[in-house]
Automatic annotation (TrEMBL):
Electron transport listed as a keyword: no
Protein name, entry field: 3-isopropylmalate dehydrogenase
Cofactor(s) needed: Mn(2+); Mg(2+)
Reported function: Catalyzes the oxidation of 3-carboxy-2-hydroxy-4-methylpentanoate (3-isopropylmalate) to 3-carboxy-4-methyl-2-oxopentanoate. The product decarboxylates to 4-methyl-2 oxopentanoate.
Pathway involvement of the protein, from the record: Amino-acid biosynthesis; L-leucine biosynthesis; L-leucine from 3-methyl-2-oxobutanoate: step 3/4
Subunit composition and interactions: Homodimer.
Organism: Dentiradicibacter hellwigii
Length: 354
């Protein structure tokens, strides 16, 4: 059972260290190797996804990732940006299915910015397509063009999906809904964008194969509104790469903090990359302030999806629940009457409860 750990940049280093401690404490025979991805890789090699990392990631059964990016690398040419490394590994490993569960632990019902009665009991799964859409579409660029007789800079990207890409993420979402609340909401912008008209058509074509799942459709702007108005109406949401990026950050705040939202990015054979949904949080990096729970919960998803170790996954998730019930909080989810811990102490608290 080979795990490639890519801490990345900023708080990535701090939070993956805690998740690795948790994995090691389980006493399972994991082979864990670390490598560079993102800004740290650019600094060391000039490449955000260097060849040595590619080899390790391809040979591993699963990848645990912290986060990449930060202001230090914002001025670099696009192909050297840390985020290109992340997009590169997702594409290279064929990780098209991104599962982002937004679950509100009862102890955190006051940590959300929404009223407790709106969010209590929340349990949503966002299924985001991860290797297509406008993120990868060609052509793309910024160039000088003569427009209306004036030389000006012109920026462009291309949004596209083929029906095969839509069908395979659709199947992941229908299967997930079948195992949960049996409701699937497909989110698109079919009133404006042809690509997402195709998305809706293909979801409708799949529906008869899953008669026990109730499929509905929603336009993305309405979905963004409904997620804060009445989030519990959702069970599973399936959507494209860009809409999924935005909606999953929005959903994270329903759970109290983006520091609570794990994710799994899977290929067709459950090889996976596991990472928190948040970024490298340059504002709190190196201060022992980051919440490591999203990363620890991502490691639990790794145990479940790649290694089929359901019991071990639940051990980790139960330990996280216990820590919250014991009143331990990092700053992002702190409220009066609870005890504030740093990143490392939070990792230790989870270890003690395993
Ligand atoms: N998967 C990834 O690697 C990933 C995801 C998103 C953003 N990024 C990159 O991260 C950098 C910063 O992006 P951003 O500021 O827009 O988003 P961010 O998610 O890094 O931070 C947004 C806010 O949430 C807070 N936050 C995030 N994670 C937290 C945690 N675990 N505990 C406590 N607070 C936490 C941060 O302090 C910040 O105030 C950018 O370079 C961006 O490209 C990377
Ligand atoms: C850093 C960026 C490339 C990434 C994305 O947009 O997919 C991030 O925001 C995420 O949600 O994982
Ligand atoms: Mg994002």
């Amino acid at each position: 059972m080979k795990i490639c750990v890519l801490p990345g940049d900023g708080i990535g280093v701090e939070i993956t260290a805690q998740a690795v401690r948790v994995l090691e404490a389980l006493g399972l025979s994991f082979e864990i190797e670390h490598a560079l991805l993102g800004g740290c890789a650019v600094d060391a090699t000039g490449d955000p996804y260097p060849e040595a990392t590619q080899k390790l990631a391809q040979a591993a059964d699963a990848v645990l990732l912290g986060a990449v990016g930060g202001p230090k690398w914002d001025g670099l040419p696009r192909e050297q940006r840390p985020e290109r490394g992340l997009l590169g590994i997702r594409k290279q490993l064929g990780l098209f299915a991104n599962l982002r569960p937004a679950v509100l632990y009862p102890e955190l019902s006051n940590a959300s910015t929404l009223k407790p009665e709106v969010v209590s009991g929340l349990d949503i799964l966002i299924v985001r397509e991860l290797t297509g859409d406008i993120y990868f579409g060609q052509p793309r660029g910024i160039e000088l063009r003569s427009i209306d007789g004036v030389q000006q800079r012109y920026g462009y990207n291309t949004m596209h999906y083929d029906e095969g890409e839509i069908r395979r993420i659709g199947r992941v979402a229908f299967e997930a809904a079948r195992k949960r609340g049996k409701r699937l909401c497909s989110v698109d912008k079919m009133n404006v964008l042809e690509t997402t008209q195709l998305w809706r058509d293909v979801m409708n074509e799949l529906a008869p194969e899953y008669p026990e799942v109730a499929l509905t459709h929603m336009l993305v702007d309405n979905c963004a509104m409904q997620l804060v108005r009445a989030p519990k109406q959702f069970d599973v949401i399936v959507t494209g790469n860009m809409f999924g990026d935005i909606l999953s950050d929005e959903a994270s705040m329903l759970t109290g903090s983006i520091g609570m939202l794990p994710s799994a990015s899977l290929d067709a054979n459950n090889k996976g990359l596991y990472e928190p949904s948040h970024g490298s949080a340059p504002d709190i990096a190196g201060k022992d302030l980051a919440n490591p729970l999203a990363t620890i919960l991502s490691a639990a998803m790794m145990l479940r999806y790649t290694f089929a170790l359901e019991e071990a996954a639940q051990r980790v998730e139960t330990a996280v629940k216990k820590v919250l019930a014991q009143g331990y909080r990092t700053s992002d989810i702190y409220e009066p009457g609870t005890q504030k811990l740093g990143t490392r102490e939070m990792g230790e608290a989870v270890l003690k409860n395993l």
